Amino acid sequence: MDLDFVLMMELAEVDLILKELEEGYRKKYFRKDATKPWGFKCYYCEKKVASNEADEFWCVPDTSYGSSGIGRRRFCSRDCSDCYFNEQRNELLEQRKRIMEDRKLLRVFYKEAEREFKEIISAANESYST
Q1: pTM given for the model
Q2: Looking at the predicted structure, is the pLDDT value of residue 76 above 90?
Q3: Distances from the Cα of 59 to the Cαs of 20, 46, 93, 101, 107, in angstroms?
């Protein structure tokens, strides 16, 4: 498989994960009709949040590069979710930047290899013609 194709597929995957991250970031409300209260620990600050004490919480998709992409991280506040969201987004943008730089280097390498190949072919053709 062509290396540039692999990098393009990686880039497409990172772009899809970024889109999923941005579209899946949302505020949710605890159900008030539940018979039993439920809770969780904030993924960022580890504060315990319970449905009988709070009205809302925040969710961000688990989009770590290379993860299965299944699941959501829950947060106690907008501040905690913003911190996690920004960390994930910056990580993905850095990954995207690295892939773009790799593709650029690959194009330079291919051009140089093609130039050297043409020189070798022309030198070989000259030696056969004389």
Answers
A1: 0.74
A2: yes
A3: 12, 14, 20, 32, 40
